[in-house]
Predict the 3D structure of the following.
Amino acid sequence: MGFGEWLRRVWYLLNRRRLERDLQREMEIHRAQMAEPRGFGNTLRLREESNDAWGWRWLDEACRDLRFAARTLRQSPGFTIGASLVLALGIGLNLTLFQIYNETALRPLNVRDIETLVRFQRLSNRGQAAPVPYPATQYVRTNNTVLSAVLVAARYRDVQWNDFENRLAVQFVSTNWFDETGYNAVAGRLFHETIEETPGAQPAVVISENFWTNRLNRDPSIVGSSVRINDRPATVVGVLPKDYHGLSDDESQVFLPIRQMTYFSPGLTFETAWDAYVDMYGRLKPGVPMAAARDSLRVVMDELAQQQPEHFKQGEWLEPYSAVTRFETPSQRQERLLAVATIAFLSLLVLTVACANLGNFVLSRAIGRLRELSIRIALGAGRWRVMRLLLAESALIAGIAAVMGLAISSGVFRVMNAAGLPPLHFVINWRTIIAAVAVTSFAMVAIGLLPTWAISRRDIASVMKDGGQTVSSGLGRTRLRSLLTAVQVGGSCIFLIFAGLMARSVQRMLAPGVEFEKVAVLEATRLLGRNIDQHSYWTSVRANVASVSETEDLALVLQPPPLGGMSAWPNLPEAPHLQMVANSVEPQYFNVMRVPIVAGRNFESSDDPQTTAIISRRLAMEAYGTLNVMGQQLPRTPWPNDKKRWTIVGVAEDAHAVHIDIANAVEVYFPLDLHQTKRAWLIVRARNDARLLLGPMRDAAAQAVDTNLPVQARLMSDDFRRRLNEAAIGSSIALSLALATLLLACIGVFGVISYGASLRRKEISIRLALGAKNRSLVALLMRQSGSPAAIGVLCGFGIAFAASKVLEAQRVYLGSLDAPLLLSVVAVIGVTCGMAALLPSVRALRTDVAQTLRDE
Amino acid sequence: MLILRVVSTRPLHGYAIAQQIHILSREQLSVEEGSLYPALQKLLLKGWLKAEWTTSETGREVREYRITPGGRKQLDAELAEYRRMSKAIDALLDNA
């Protein structure tokens, strides 16, 4: 069909009524001119055949079918509303998750010249090296030939704005940040190199539109106004546009020039400190590919390694990642794809279970129309015509559900934004439309096509002979019905297993092997980059805090629970499934956190931090098979040629205190050496109430050094609760979905048994009349759903087992599938589906035997 | 092809087309109305004919079909094909 012909078809469609009237008039004129007008034939039939030439008959029939389906559905409002709601929830869930993925991963970064913007990660032959220090970024900026600009950003979480009660997260950015990313201010101006780089430039602040609206009530005089940041005066110079998202997941709302960091944090030697790390980005010069940039910058990095051998090693390089792919590294991409696949699988499973449930109902309704369908076939309708008729209802329900699903998705986003979650926008673009069409089509096929195909395969014409009994009975016991039941049971089985695994993970997190309720934490990472002697600082702070009467014990640690430890080498060959997580601690740590030493000894002041280790009980038992592991050697790196070892001096009880999200995490402790490490935290156990320690801890820190040095003291229980919330929310969602799908499965089983019983009323009555026992009849009816349910459970187990193995190593709060969990799931499904099958079976026995035999 | 041929000389309405085919074929061929109007619609769809309402010589309002340049091209092609086939069949019948 050429383009001209296609255009003419469309033109005909748009002018159809007029052209049909013209044809009718023309035929009447023709007929009037004939000597024998009767010879003209049936004008209506001729007009239909003539109009068919334009190829829109299928549209007419589809509209007719939909109108008929709408009338039919209007007569069953309960089924229509219920089916639409169930499907809408499944579609809405899928669309919501897709939108979140669309906004966070698929939506391209909103920056200028995205193809030439890259982020740099410092790598070495041994993997990821430390991040890039600020002085290194400036050296690269002035000594490279492949970048037209270098952008730098550093996040700080603890900045005081005027007298606001809560501190803010701010981002220090290079002065070319907004120019290079291509944003303009909605009020005032943004940072410019020519202004902020000028010697003596006034301290400047840029704020986000969100901050201006929610915290400053869109004060129209904000630009040019003076504010105090960390008690230092500064001027608000501009407001960012609403569509500013930055280059990462950062949610900072206040931006300061990185060159003025020293002004806002006195004592900071940021510009010359080789341990002050930043995020580094670059703008490639025109025509420079990323590979060429990487190779060219290797030379610069080698120069840095020669000039700063204590901070850089030979062979390190800067690996660029493009803004086009949102700066994703290969490992991040793998994690993302796995997470997306898991979530997509689960959400589609919800939709599949909902569709299977509805499919059974659609099948039952179709069986109820067998007589009507047989009449249509007798009048000449083909199989495809019959299928279209049955599909029209499903299409209508799916369409209504799709609109409701979009509304649900939009509503969920509104709620999320109102709850203060990261601002995501529900956007209808081509991706959303394609996703909605795909999900709706899947639903339509699942609930409509399969039952329709099952009906159409039968000899429906024979319905007219026996009133539909034979065909109905056969359809009541189709494999399709069993398949739909199995899908529902299998789906709910999978959800129950996941919910059980997540609930166990949460339970494990709720019962860590540490007592944190009476512990307070002092954070002083701000010491990074400052010209302060760490050892002196902490010695002074410890002495001050120890003198407080409420203090029972205290210890310095590299990372306090539950913020996580450093991941050690991937695995020990003796126990490859264990993920070792390291932490450097003082000997008092074990008493503060109430982690007993179960074998060997605690650290002593004479222990060498480079060669001494304490491991957890689980690691000792699974790697060595005994607690008596003192003197054993732990490899320090995963490389076989590296001969450095740690010597185990003790075994501590399992703590589950760090990386509480990983199921197979085991702890390895090293002595903390303040001379070697750049950061530390102080954890303090209170005698009675940790809240009484917070003020004295802050005061102790202030007395130790500069009073302007901001420190943060908080309760360790708050950190644990924040971590648990995430897992608890996930577990609650999984449990809700599990219960919802289980309910759907029970409704499905109930429906199957009820319908089967209604089809076999005559048979049941005859059996009862012949003296069959109630128990055997109930078993006969329940067997109908027994096999599909059993198959569903087995398949569900298989899929859940495979998925849990894949996800075990990921941070998705899952543990291993074991017999108690499987038996629990079998019991839950057995009891619930059993009850769902029993009720209609028992009800069927109450039939009036004599009446039934007379009627049948 | 027959419809295109009779309309190629001058625009005609439906009844006149049927009449012309019957007359010009020396009453050997008749186009039933049941075939004529679907064929006319197909020709309109292909763009080989155009239709418009006019007033006939008798003062009656009629809908006349006029051949388009594309229709003339199609007519020439079909005529050429018909003549080729006709020659081939004649040769077969003569020499068989």
In short: Chain B has four helices and three strands. The longest strand of chain B covers residues 49-55.
